[in-house]
Design brief:
heterotrimer; A alpha+beta; B mainly alpha; C mainly alpha; A: 16 helices
């Protein structure tokens, strides 16, 4: 009898821990769905979300943007010179996934390659603050050694800026083209570089295992990564599913763990969605060119005041979208403080609109134009990009202006490239623009200066342009922010643009997925510290 | 006969050339710039890109450069998938679309033809009505709606088939059926009408009066002749099915040509669109060419008349 | 001498008499071709059902939007995605627009595009095919070669490109269909004309010196009319389908003007949550296509001389 009991206890003592161990080993595989294929993994050419997303996992830059904080990446540390124009980065001992050490030369090669006119990159303006970068990529100088990117030795990279740019580090952290490139791979594969697992190499937390074009991207943990111990996921799989209903269906069936972004309507059946916001500002650009109907400031204000931003956001926008009355993104933080809180300004438009005020402006506009009723106004052309949410916005705005003010606005829906063509060539009266708000509060405001190619509103204000020019060169951050505030007051008052809202994005993710981080900028999901919980 | 083939060949090549030329110029007529995406580029940057790709050169020069490359089988690099050649993208996506297309045809052809024959022979009876109902419904429900429904019922609700992607055999069932049903319906209708037409012809009556067996009449005379109108539509039908149907591929996440096609047109990826159009055109031309040859073999009147 | 016949004795037979008048009597009333066609068509219940449905839809599409208190573009952002109710018979869409009105305005657009998108290419085809078949020779050869070439150009590609160049909406869509869809009709008509040309009555007319116009209108047109009308009718569902497809992929009719294809497109994105928004336009599309198919089939059967009873 005793023998039996002993045996049973012994067996239990052995099997129970073992089976617990076995049971607790959940496969560390994260599967998610994206809506588009990766366009390219060539660091110099990358300019879309999906490619950036995968690149975050495959590669690493000098620094990393983690939870909106800058942490060391491939650079262990860095020093900044007294005048703030010279940054010296000290690289750690890290390896590419084939064991070859990462050197400063890899960074130098990459940055110069992107700026090189022969490469044909559209991302060259990311390097604008670097000394002689613009001259180089515009072809004014051909000697690359004049550009402020130097690999002083194997582990030291020196970046020289044109001026003391307080936002340089954050911009580099949020940028998608600051990764190193292996020269020998480019030499070997030429134009086909980075188009398949064989032709690409990275030094990030994951390796590109498989890329079935149009269908699936599989990443595996990179054992050569310098921080491999912290990486818990063994495998990341991205399935490319273009149709949203299908994506959500697969999520429901448990075939995928997360969906990168979902449209508003899907949140109804999935109240467990998450949302992230900030990073983009959407506003209406009015074409203020001489002789056009939108030249009239009161008309512009009438239209802006008539918009019920709250209702539109509630009905159409994804969760996380916030109506705004500023041209500075409220999510921009400097030194721990929100810029918009520290420096106040407003268009004066309440988030649900003010129809009475709008009508006053409209009447002023009509009398200025010598007209008696809204229907006397010349035709107003709202050019809309052919994408589902933009179309809904356009229709909602059109209906709002019609019902509230009696103003008829005609909508032209054009495919994206055509719509943008119309924007750039001034063939529109109203256009809904969405721009990244970056780290510099004046990012979007910088566009509206005289002669600027991005001044979509074609608005000429000397005072404003001067203020903008002054602040961009100003090394004193506090003074700079004050000047930005002054400039903003002007643009909000004259309303060549009407700020609308900062879009948010809804996404779906199972609760057993932990440690995923969605950054402020679109495309920035980091899998590096993620893991699957039991 | 040889002359006939030769002339058809010549015409086919001429057609291809014309197709490429018209598409080339039409694409350049499209307003908008291929380099503008959601992240709006400045005008200077846009022009920089245009110059880099040679898109600001005189259009005639671009045309000859492109045609020269095309003759060597080089369709250039995609403007959007910057490091991939159009050839490689098509080479990867086409087999998928072709697989889907062939499966649908393999399903639709025998079933459709059989139903058409059966319903014609049993005209006015229950079988006929049933076939007609199925086929009319089949041509009246758009394939994309059908696809959504099938996916919803079989994948989501009943969970007996996978939702999307193109990996295992089970994955391939729903998209194939969605496309095949529409094809089947069309084939049934045409075959039925054709059979009915043929049955009343004199030569059939002659064969009957000669005392030929039922089977021989049906096979040698009726079906073979009824197939001729089907042949006419086979060319375009095969070509279009093989090129992938955009909506089915989108719904079922199938990495075929259909998706590339619509995306490249709306995104103004010139090289990709040209490549796809020329490729598709070549298919259509070849299909028509083969059908013409088949015609020449089957119907001696045509050979002689030409 | 008349012998016994089949075992029945000769005297059981009575001679009825054969007179000239009697032998000339027609055993059935003379009906013109067209009257016969109508008669048979009316008797075809299935085809008639199709026709009635079509007329009903057309009628509703004209009347209902005029009667409704909502306009097709009127939004109500506080009442989005509502289910069918007494207030909104078909519910509302994602911008709070009344779906009942939108379906019937969409009917106008889809029917117009479907009908004109079939008739116009057919007519163009008839003219070109007619010229080709009638005049024959070199003219015929050139036109047929041209068609051979153009027919190889993928239609969908060209519709898309044309729409992108001339813009979107019902009229550009019809134009695009007209430019890309006339070839089939042309070939058919040409073949038909070639056949009729060889008929004896045409030959006779020509020998008698009838001018071209006479031959065309008196002989060719009546004989081809039936086939052309049938193919026009059966071409409508195809045009409706193409419009639905193009709008579905975002290229056909642009908002806020609704069309069934566009409504189906908007409905698919919310299908799992608000199924009616897809089901209703889908049913309308299918029902209309079905009705035209049934009616067209009936028309074709009615025109088939072999079925004359």
């Amino acid at each position: 009898m005793k023998k039996w009991i002993v045996s049973i206890v012994l067996i239990a003592l052995i099997t129970i821990p073992v089976s617990c161990l076995a049971a607790s080993v959940t496969p560390q595989v994260f599967t998610f769905a994206g809506h588009n294929d990766v366009m390219t993994l060539d660091v110099s050419q990358m300019n879309d979300e999906m490619s950036a997303l995968i690149m975050y996992a495959l590669n690493e830059s000098l620094i990393r943007n983690s939870y909106n904080e800058i942490i060391p990446g491939l650079a262990e540390s860095y020093d900044v010179s007294e005048d703030g124009t010279v940054y010296t980065f000290h690289l750690r001992d890290a390896k590419w996934s084939d064991g070859v050490p990462v050197t400063a030369k890899d960074f130098e090669y990459s940055f110069l390659r992107t700026m090189n006119p022969e490469t044909g990159s559209s991302q060259v303006s990311e390097f604008d603050s670097i000394l002689n970068a613009q001259a180089y990529y515009n072809g004014e100088i051909t000697d690359a050694s004049l550009v402020g990117v130097k690999a002083v030795d194997e582990k030291t990279l020196v970046l020289t800026l044109t001026y003391n740019d307080p936002f340089f580090m954050t911009e580099m952290a949020e940028g998608i083209n600051f990764y190193p490139i292996r020269e020998d791979y480019v030499e070997k594969y030429g134009m086909s570089y980075a188009s398949s697992p064989e032709t690409f190499i990275g030094c990030g937390p994951f390796v590109l295992k498989e890329w079935v074009q149009g269908a699936r991207v599989t990443l595996e943990k990179n054992s050569e990564y310098w921080n491999a111990d912290k990486v818990k996921l063994d495998k990341v799989v991205e399935l490319i599913i273009p149709d949203e209903n299908t994506r959500v269906g697969m999520y429901d069936l448990g075939e995928i763990d997360a969906i990168y972004s979902i449209s508003k309507v899907q949140t109804i059946m999935h109240p467990e969605y998450g949302s992230r916001s900030g990073g983009t500002l959407q506003y209406l650009a009015f074409n203020c060119s001489e002789g056009l109907v939108m030249e009239n400031m009161n008309l512009r204000k009438a239209l802006s005041f008539a918009i019920d931003r709250e209702a539109i956001v509630a009905a159409i926008s994804s969760p996380g979208t916030i109506p705004v009355d500023r041209m500075i993104d409220p999510s921009i933080i400097i030194d721990g403080k929100s810029v918009t809180e520290a420096y106040s300004n407003s268009t004066g438009v309440p988030s649900s609109g003010d129809i009475e005020k709008a009508k006053e402006f409209l009447n002023d506009a009509l009398s200025e134009l010598g007209l008696s009723k809204p229907s006397d106004l010349p035709s107003i052309n709202y050019v809309c990009m052919d994408s589902p949410v933009h179309k809904q916005y356009a229709e909602a705005l059109q209906a709002g202006w019609k019902d509230g003010l009696g103003v008829d606005v005609g909508i032209s829906i054009l495919p994206v490239p055509q719509a943008i063509g119309a924007l750039l060539s001034g063939q529109f009266d109203i256009f809904l623009v969405g721009q990244s708000s970056g780290v510099d509060p004046a990012t979007i405001m910088n566009n509206f200066t005289i002669g600027n190619g991005n001044n979509y509103a074609r608005w000429d204000s000397e005072e404003y342009s001067n203020l903008i020019a002054t602040q961009s060169e100003n090394p004193d951050l506090a003074e700079r922010l004050l000047q930005i505030q002054q400039a903003e007051a002007i643009i909000l008052n004259e309303a060549p643009v009407a700020p609308l809202w900062t879009p948010g994005t809804a996404y779906l993710c199972r609760e057993y997925v932990k440690g995923l981080h969605y950054g402020r900028q679109t495309g920035s999901i980091e899998f590096i510290f993620a893991y699957i919980e039991d | 006969m040889v002359r006939y083939i030769f002339r058809r060949l010549l015409i086919s090549l001429l057609t291809l050339w014309l197709l490429a030329t018209i598409t080339f110029f039409m694409l350049r007529l499209l307003p908008g710039n291929p380099f503008q995406t959601d992240q709006i580029l400045t005008f200077e940057m846009q022009e920089r890109m245009m110059n880099y790709y040679g898109l600001n050169r005189p259009i005639i020069e671009q045309y000859f450069t492109y045609m020269g490359n095309l003759l060597q089988g080089n369709m250039g690099y995609s403007l959007k998938y910057t490091n991939r050649t159009v050839n490689s993208i098509i080479a990867k996506a086409f087999p998928v679309s072709a697989d889907l297309g062939l499966r649908s045809l393999a399903l639709a052809l025998p079933v459709g033809l059989f139903l058409g024959i059966a319903s014609a022979r049993k005209r006015g009876k229950a079988v006929d009505y049933l076939c007609v109902i199925i086929s009319v419904i089949g041509v009246s429900i758009p394939s994309f709606i059908l696809g959504s429904f099938l996916q919803y019922i079989f994948a989501l609700k009943l969970r007996i088939l996978p939702m999307a992607q193109w990996t295992t055999e089970m994955h391939k069932v729903l998209p194939t059926v969605a496309i095949a049903l529409g094809l089947l319906a069309t084939l049934t209708r045409i075959m039925r009408a054709s059979m009915l037409e043929v049955t009343t012809q004199d030569y059939v009556k002659t064969a009957k009066s000669k005392g030929l067996s039922e089977g021989k009449i049906v096979w040698s005379h009726e079906i073979r002749n009824a197939l001729i109108p089907i042949l006419t539509m086979m060319g375009p039908m095969v070509a279009s099915v093989l090129m992938g149907t955009f909506v089915i591929e989108k719904i079922f996440a199938i990495p075929g040509l259909g998706l590339h096609f619509v995306n490249s047109i709306t995104g103004l990826d010139y090289t990709m669109t040209m490549g796809l159009t020329v490729f598709f055109g070549a298919f259509l031309v070849t299909a028509n060419f083969l059908v013409d040859i088949a015609y020449g073999i089957v119907d001696p009147r045509i050979r002689i008349a030409k | 001498m008349i012998k016994d016949f089949a075992g029945i004795p000769r005297d059981e037979f009575e001679f009825v008499g054969e007179t000239e008048e009697k032998s000339e009597v027609l055993t059935r009333p003379s009906i013109s071709f067209w009257k016969d066609v109508w008669r048979r068509l009316f008797k075809n219940k299935v085809a008639m059902t199709g026709l009635i449905i079509i007329l009903a839809i057309a009628l509703f599409s004209i009347i209902i939007p005029e009667l409704s208190s909502y306009s097709y573009s009127q939004q109500n952002l506080r009442n989005i995605n509502a289910a069918p109710s007494s207030e909104h018979w078909f519910g509302t869409d994602s911008l709070g627009r009344d779906l009942w009105v939108r379906i019937w305005v969409g009917a106008r657009v889809s029917l117009a595009v479907g009908i004109f998108g079939s008739i116009i290419p057919s007519l163009i085809g008839v003219v070109i095919g007619g010229i080709s078949g009638y005049f024959g020779g070199k003219v015929d050869m050139i036109i047929m070669r041209l068609i051979d070439i153009i027919i190889c150009i993928p239609q969908m590609i060209y519709i898309i490109l044309i729409m992108l160049v001339i813009g979107s909406g019902p009229v550009p869509l019809i134009i695009a269909f007209a430019i890309t869809g006339w070839m089939g009709s042309a070939r058919n008509v040409r073949g038909l004309i070639l056949k009729i040309k060889q008929e004896e009555f045409v030959l006779a007319s020509r020998i008698l010196g009838a001018p071209h116009g006479y031959i065309i209108f008196k002989h060719l047109v009546p004989n081809t009319l039936g086939i052309v009308v049938v193919s026009m009718t059966l071409g409508v569902p195809a045009a409706i389908f193409q419009e639905a497809y193009l709008s579905f992929i975002g290229l056909g009719i642009k908002p806020p003007i609704p069309s069934w294809g566009q409504l189906a497109n908007l409905g698919t994105s919310v299908f799992r949550i608000f199924p009616t928004q897809l089901l209703i336009p889908a049913i309308m599309i299918s029902l209309t296509m079905l009705s035209f198919n049934l009616f067209g089939d009936g028309l074709r059967d009615a025109l088939d001389p072999k079925l004359r009873s």
